[in-house]
Structures are given as structure tokens and as C-alpha cells.
């Protein structure tokens, strides 16, 4: 065998092995059954084995990914089909199409594995699960967050809000500070106390360092989405993001163990046994313990089965509420209008508003919704479990549906001033004239955000308390904001504001 033949054989072997590995990496956990007539990208082509994956070359982070998706969606006003290997992904770009999908959401209830499996590196809880494991944890969560419990939560939220207002008051006259730093701990405290029955004391003493660790964990999980080689567990575990994720878990583990041990002690004192078939959990740590016993989970899996609830409970609401304060600081005319509504509803009182008083703060509702329009979760992904057709477009079983929320929330077809901060978008008559699918910040169907009511109530309460006490300003301009893609869209420059006391 000559040198040339040996070289050709070696190159052929390398090529075959590479194709085999690439095919394995691009083979989805849930295969697509059937084809679709939904059009693909106008530019580029679909190749054997890799599909449209070559169009993603150069994507280094989540911002690059969403920017690429926007370019691919150019000239497609309703739907776009995109193949990663054999996995068919359907991007939803039309509010009426989304509304039709919502009406048959039982056919696409599961979260898309190819996206959400990445979160399992940090936590295997209710927000990334599917099937029986998901429903076993979601049912008690829905019970905890039932509207009848909101009055009890309201008292806890009001107590924590007073602490935040005091901390902001200490910053008056002292220059610029980041409002989100304070908001993180307020939202974390009410999540701990309301849902986990853990004392919410992080505003007073930051013992968990949870907001800091959450940012690191989310960064590492999104890195895994971007780099396809990280789909292989051992490669990810050896990578810098994987090692960083493990460090975060190591720092968090002792605190979770303490929470679980304290929960066991409380159950023992009350004579309650999580192994009892008739046991009814009273908080989400008890749900995790009971589920761990039933599914025979390891201690590690049980510990990190409620960490994602902690993340979801504080992170999204903190981003939304901090953004509202920042945007009002950028728009003094809207801040004044929100303040005057507070005066009208609260009659000069500085007490926390009741739930009935919150319901009358209509401009605050409009302002909060307009904030969500700009900073909501960029996209949600579902897997189709049964084929359906909408407007003659075929959605085959096993395909992924990506609802590109950021696209819909900024589409000039539905929004008068899409690039501006304009609360009038949510005047009742404009909402009524707009397709419901144009604004769904809390998702839809069986996987709708369980904390929607809880999050809105806690956010409006702290906004009301802050706006009655302080006037906010900032040198940052709305058009200068650069967003980074985390769980929500976050300001890359932070949330810098100055506060001035409104007290006479």
C-alpha cells in the first residue's frame, strides 16, 4: 500500500468518524415523524446530515443566535421551518397562528428537549421536566399558587417591601446605584418564605449569594445550547462552562442541605411523614422530598429539584420590576403619571396597597405590561406530540415549535410604536383590537407560568411602594440600552438610577 493510498484511507476514516459523531450530535431525542410544507430560509440551503446547521456558523452566544434567527426569518411573515440535522424546528412569527396553536396546546405541551435539557446540568426540577415527573411536581405548585393563597402571600410581600424601601431610602442623595441589586433580594426573600417556607432574610444578610450564582449558572447553561459538542455529557463536564456550573452547585449545595434538614425537622415536630401515602406537601421543599422518595432519587437529584423554582421565583420578576423602574426613570412624564395614579388610589398613604387597591392601578398595569413587552423571555419551545394543521400548514409530530416572543412583541403589525417605551399600547381599546397571540409573556396552555398571579402581585406592590416614596432619574437613555440574553432580556449596562425622596 503506497503513501497516497494510506493518506486517502486515513482521511476517509477521519471523515467517516466525523460524520458519525456529527450525525449523533444532530440526532434529536424526539424524532420528527413526517414532513412539513412550511417554507425554509430564503438564503442558504439544507444539506444532508447537518440540515441548515451551517447557517449558524459564527454564532457564539445567545444574542448571536437570536440575531441569526431574525435574519433567517426575513421575508417570512408567518412561519419558518429550519432543520438541525433531522430535527425540524418551526419558528412562529404570526400572532394569529400562535393563537390557533394555543387553542390546541394539548398537542404541544411538552417542553422541547433539545433546548431545556441544558437546564438539567443545574437543576432537574419542574421547569425542565416533562411527563409524569413534571405533573407530580406541577400539581402541588399550582395548589400553592392558587388565587386563594394570594392574600396570605400579600402580607409577606408587604413586609419584605418595607425592607427594600428602607434600603433604597438609604441611597437617596448618595448618587447612582443599581436598583436590581436590591430587587433581586426582595424577590428572593418572598420566594423563599412563600413557596419554600424558608425564612426570607437575604435582604438583611446575604448568606446564599444566590443572585450571583444564578447569573453564573444561566450563563453556563446557555453556553451549552450554543455549542453542540456540549450535548455530550462528559465533554460538557470537562469544559470551562461545565466546571463553572459544578462550582456553582458546590457553593449552593450546603445551603440546600440545610433547607432540607430544617424541613425534615419541622415535619417531624408536626408528626408528618413524607413517606406516608396520604402525605400532602405544605411547601415546595416538601414536594421535592416526597417526589425524591417516590422516584427513589439520589440526594443530589432531590436537592437540585427545587433550585430552579428559586431561580424562576426571583429572577424573572426582579428583571421585570427593575426594568420598570429604569424605564420610568428614563421617561419622567410616565413616571409622573404613575405617581399621580398612586396618589389618587392611595390618598397619600405610604402603607402597602391592598389587593383591591392594586386592582385599580390601571396605568401601573399598562406600564408593567409595556416593560414585559421589551424584556420578556425571548422565546419558548415546545414539542409537537400529535400532528395538526393550521391554515393548511402541516405541523408534524415530533417537530419543535419555537415561539419567537421577542419578534412578536416588537412586530409593527401589532404595535403602534414598537421600538419605543409606550404604555398606551395597553389601553383597553388597543388590547381588544390586537390578536391575543401578540402578547403572551407568561406562555400558554398547561405550561403557562404557574407564578403569573404571584409575580404580578409582588411586582405591582413594590412598584407602588417605591413610586410613592421616591422619584427616580437616570442618565441612561432608552435608545442606548443594549440587551443581553439571559432568562429574560437584561440591560447590559445594569439598572443605574438615582433616587430622591418625595417626603415634604
From TrEMBL:
Signal peptide: none annotated. It is found in: Endoplasmic reticulum membrane; Microsome membrane. InterPro entries: Cyt_P450, Cyt_P450_E_grp-I, Cyt_P450_sf, Cytochrome_P450_Monoox. It is a peripheral membrane protein. Pfam families: p450. Its cofactor is heme. PANTHER family: CYTOCHROME P450 4C3-RELATED, CYTOCHROME P450 FAMILY 4. This is Cytochrome P450.
Amino acid at each position: 500500500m503506497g503513501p497516497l493510498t494510506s493518506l486517502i484511507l486515513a482521511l476517509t476514516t477521519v471523515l467517516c468518524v466525523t460524520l458519525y459523531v456529527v450525525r449523533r450530535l444532530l440526532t434529536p431525542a424526539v424524532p420528527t415523524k413526517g414532513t412539513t410544507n412550511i417554507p425554509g430560509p430564503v438564503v442558504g440551503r439544507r444539506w444532508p446530515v447537518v440540515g441548515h446547521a451551517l447557517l449558524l456558523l459564527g454564532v457564539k452566544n445567545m444574542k448571536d443566535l437570536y440575531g441569526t434567527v431574525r435574519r433567517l426569518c426575513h421575508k417570512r411573515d408567518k412561519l419558518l421551518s429550519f432543520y438541525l440535522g433531522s430535527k425540524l424546528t418551526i419558528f412562529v412569527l404570526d400572532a394569529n397562528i400562535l393563537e390557533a396553536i394555543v387553542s390546541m396546546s394539548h398537542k404541544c405541551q411538552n417542553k422541547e428537549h433539545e433546548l431545556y435539557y441544558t437546564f438539567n446540568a443545574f437543576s432537574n426540577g419542574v421547569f425542565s421536566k416533562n411527563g409524569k415527573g413534571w405533573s407530580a411536581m406541577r400539581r402541588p405548585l399550582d395548589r400553592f399558587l392558587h388565587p386563594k393563597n394570594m392574600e396570605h402571600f400579600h402580607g409577606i410581600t408587604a413586609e419584605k417591601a418595607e425592607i427594600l424601601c428602607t434600603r433604597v431610602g438609604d441611597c437617596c442623595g448618595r448618587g447612582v446605584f443599581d436598583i436590581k441589586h436590591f430587587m433581586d433580594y426582595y424577590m428572593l426573600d418572598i420566594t423563599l418564605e412563600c413557596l419554600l417556607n424558608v425564612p426570607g432574610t437575604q435582604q438583611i444578610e446575604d448568606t446564599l449569594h444566590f443572585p450571583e450564582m444564578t447569573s453564573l449558572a444561566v450563563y453556563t447553561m446557555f453556553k451549552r445550547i450554543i455549542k453542540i459538542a456540549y450535548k455530550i455529557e462528559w465533554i460538557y463536564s470537562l469544559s470551562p462552562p461545565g466546571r463553572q456550573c459544578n462550582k456553582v452547585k458546590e457553593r449552593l449545595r450546603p445551603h440546600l442541605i440545610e433547607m432540607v434538614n430544617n424541613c425534615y425537622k419541622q415535619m417531624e415536630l408536626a408528626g408528618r411523614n413524607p413517606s406516608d401515602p396520604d402525605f400532602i406537601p405544605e411547601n415546595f421543599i416538601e414536594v421535592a422530598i416526597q417526589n425524591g422518595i417516590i422516584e427513589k432519587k439520589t440526594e443530589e437529584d432531590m436537592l437540585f429539584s427545587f433550585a430552579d423554582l428559586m431561580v424562576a421565583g426571583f429572577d424573572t420578576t426582579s428583571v421585570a420590576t427593575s426594568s420598570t423602574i429604569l424605564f420610568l426613570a428614563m421617561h419622567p412624564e410616565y413616571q409622573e403619571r404613575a405617581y399621580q395614579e398612586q396618589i389618587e388610589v392611595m390618598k397619600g398613604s405610604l402603607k402597602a396597597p391592598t389587593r383591591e387597591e392594586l386592582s385599580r392601578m390601571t396605568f401601573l398595569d399598562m406600564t408593567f405590561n409595556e416593560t414585559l413587552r421589551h424584556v420578556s423571555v425571548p422565546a419558548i419551545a415546545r414539542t409537537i406530540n400529535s400532528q395538526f394543521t393550521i391554515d393548511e400548514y402541516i405541523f408534524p409530530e415530533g417537530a419543535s415549535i419555537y415561539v419567537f416572543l421577542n419578534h412578536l412583541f416588537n412586530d409593527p403589525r401589532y404595535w403602534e410604536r414598537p421600538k419605543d417605551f409606550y404604555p398606551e399600547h395597553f389601553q383597553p381599546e388597543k388590547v381588544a383590537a390586537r390578536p391575543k397571540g401578540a402578547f403572551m409573556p407568561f406562555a400558554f396552555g398547561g405550561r403557562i407560568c404557574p407564578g403569573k398571579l404571584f409575580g404580578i402581585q409582588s411586582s405591582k406592590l413594590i412598584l407602588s411602594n417605591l413610586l410613592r416614596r421616591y422619584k427616580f432619574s437616570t442618565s441612561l437613555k432608552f435608545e442606548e440600552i443594549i440587551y443581553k440574553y439571559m432568562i429574560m432580556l437584561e440591560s447590559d449596562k445594569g439598572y443605574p438610577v438615582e433616587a430622591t425622596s418625595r417626603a415634604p
